[in-house]
Structures are given as C-alpha cells and as structure tokens.
Amino acid sequence: MNLYYELLGRPVFTAEDVSQYYNNVNSTRSTLKRLLNQNLIVKIRNNLYTCISGETGMPVANRYQIACKITDTAYLSHHTAIEYYGLSDQVYYDVYVASETRFRDFEFDGYTYKYIPTKSQSGVEEVKYSGGVRVTDLERTLTDSIKDMDDISGIEEIISFIHSIRKLDEKKLCQYLNEYGRQCLFQKTGYLLETYYANAGITDMFYEFCQEHIGKSKRYLSKDIQQGVYNSKWKLVVPDTKRFLKNGENGDYDRI
User: Into how many domains does the chain fold?
Assistant: First the structure.
C-alpha cells in the first residue's frame, strides 16, 4: 500500500484519518513525520494536513476545502461564500469560516482563515463532488452579509452581490430574518432589495413583511455614512450619492 496515494483521495486529512491504516499511535506519528520530511504532505495547522501535488508542487486542497475541515461544524460564509458562487469580481485573501466551535485565526498558503461565531446551521448546503465543501445558500449569504455589513462586507460589495443574483427565495429570506430577529436587519434588507433588486421578482408581500418588523427606530444603513439622505419608508439614512441610488433618483428621501 502506498499511503500517499491513499491520502490523495482526501483533500484535507487528520492524524485520525491516517491512524486507520495503522495499529498504534506511534506508527501514525512516525508516518506523518516521514511524509512531512519527504515533502509529500504539508501541515496546515494543528492536526490538519493536505498532500503536495507531484505535478505542481502545491497543496492539493483548495482554501474552501481547508476551511470546511477546520471543525466538524465549519462552513463558508459572507464574502467567501460569495466568491465560491463565482459572484464576486474581487479576490480576497481572508477566508471567512462560520463554526459552532471556536478556533484561532491562522494563515496558510497566502490565506488567512477567520473564525465567525455561529449557533445556526440553517441554510448550509453540502456541495456534491466538492471534496467536503459546505456553504451558506444565497439567501443566508445575503442575510449574513447585510447583518455584518460594517465588520466584513461593506455596502459596495453587498450591492454588487445583489446585482449579480438572478433569483432569491423569499421564504428562505423571511426564515433567516426571523431567526436573527433584528429590527435593523429587516430595515436594511428591505431597503437594499427594494432599491437594487426591484425588478427581479421580489413581491410586495416580502417588503410588507419587512416593514411589519422595523419598529420606530431611525438608523444609518452603515456606520461609514458621514452624510446621507433619509429614507422615510425604511427609516434609514443611506448614502447621498447617485452611484448608490437606483436610476440616479432620490425617490422618498430627505437630505440631512
């Protein structure tokens, strides 16, 4: 048996995976050490490895496969999920990994893997024939990105993401909004979709649903907005710039 070729079938593996081929821990440890010294495998982080390709000399596992193996509950989220779906026009070197189990951020092969705390597996899909990739669906990805707009995504990325989506499932959006239960999230999601996704099949019922949950509080769409216009419908201060506004029109806005 050539263990290297056996391990090539696993994009990312642990010492426990290797131990299946041996009778004791010492044999597993010595084998891992030998493979590392021969540059046949590389250590990603503590107890996480991947093979080195004999053709390219590069790690076999990609960043998405690595991310989803960090913990048993790990999955791609936020702009890493957007990238995975091919809906981003930028390359990021931060890989956002949601997990119910905490892990320390770490770097490997030019990417920084960042921990996002979560208690939910809602909307997480396991992609067939992907080598173990688990990723939030489009609706959960959008909801998470809007929720964490000031910390991760940013307004421009979210608007670009919305423009690139062909179809959204309203029922899923309502489910995720209800699960988070934040008034500001209903406000921001309703405003952003109505403004930048108006002609793509979202019904009035969805916007009415959002409005029923926004309360009376007035908020900023983002903390980065220094000057803006007030949208009285969604009770939000939004960017005062035409490149952010649908068709370059102000609509139901008051300048502040």
Answer: 3
pLDDT < 70: residue spans in the chain: 1, 198-200, 241-256
> What pLDDT is recorded for position 181?
95
222 lies in some domain: yes
**What is the structure's pLDDT at 197?**
86
pTM score, whole prediction: 0.90
Six-digit token pair at 20? Answer: 């299946």
pLDDT at site 51: 97
CATH code of residue 38: 1.10.10
- pLDDT for 244 equals 53
Cβ distance 252 to 233 under 8 Å? yes
Q: Which two tokens stand for residue 183?
A: 């008034």
Give me the DSSP letters along 90-135. S--SEEEEEESS----EEETTEEEEEEE-S--TTEEEPTTSSS-EE
CA dist 81 and 161 (Å) reads 11
| Calpha distance 83→76 (Å, rounded) | 10
Q: Which of 135, 165, 195 is the last residue of a domain?
A: 165
Scanning the chain, the segments in alpha helix (DSSP H) are 3-7, 15-19, 25-37, 63-67, 78-84, 138-147, 155-164, 170-180, 183-196, 204-211
* Separation in Å, CA 146 to CA 139, 195, 238: 11, 14, 14
* C-alpha–C-alpha distance, residues 57 and 156, integer Å: 37
Which pLDDT belongs to residue 1? 52
